[in-house]
Amino acid sequence: LYSVGLGLALSVFLVIGNLGGFLVSFFTNDPATQDALKSILLIVTFSQPLNAYVFAADGMIQGASEFAYEAKSMLLSASVAFVSFLSFEYFGFEDRLSHIWYGLVILQMLRGLTATWKIIDPDGPIDLLSRRPSSA
User: Fold this and answer.
1) Among 132, 131, 128, which Cα is nearest to 61's?
2) What is the percent of the chain with per-residue pLDDT over 70, rounded to a whole number?
3) Residues whose CB falls within 8 Å of the CB of residue 94, separated by 6 or more in sequence, listed in order
4) Which of 61, 68, 108, 135 is most deeply buried (CB count within 10 A of its CB)?
5) Among 107, 120, 117, 104, which residue's Cα sits nearest to residue 69?
6) Are 38 and 24 in contact (CB under 8 A)?
7) pLDDT of 25-53, one tens digit each?
8) Taking CA 132 as the corner, what is the angle to CA 55 and CA 57, rounded to the nearest 5 degrees?
């Protein structure tokens, strides 16, 4: 939960930085690079809470020693993200940098969904939604 809050705070900071225009100029003075960064800054900004959740969920799954599940879910997520990226390239706009970031967001969304599935699975090692008392 801490990482999600941190991701939300970072997103708010990035939105404010984007609106003020200072964030892009902080990294480069090149106008072409600034224009390219401006096209993806909102995607990057709003993906930060998702990234925070996925990284926290990955830690829970790895802590439960569910490495085989993690590998299979990553293979599934990466496959769908790759096909999405290819379809963006084929059917999409000219802005290829956005295609990469949309593909990364799709990857993280699927990783988040598969991690959530494992975390709330009643037969899994975590069973976050269980009402039964823990046997500690």
Assistant:
1) 128
2) 84
3) none
4) 61
5) 117
6) yes
7) 777 888 888 888 877 887 887 888 899 89
8) 5
pLDDT band for 96, please (50, 70, 90 cuts). confident
* Cβ–Cβ < 8 Å for 79, 50: no
What span, in angstroms and rounded, lies between the C-alpha atoms of 8 and 46? 8
111: helix, coil or strand?
Answer: helix
pTM assigned to the model: 0.76
- Residue indicated by tokens 């593909």: 103
Amino acid at 76: L
Q: Which helix or strand (DSSP H or E) is residue 11 part of?
A: helix 2-20
Among all chains, which residue has been given the structure tokens 């401006």? 38
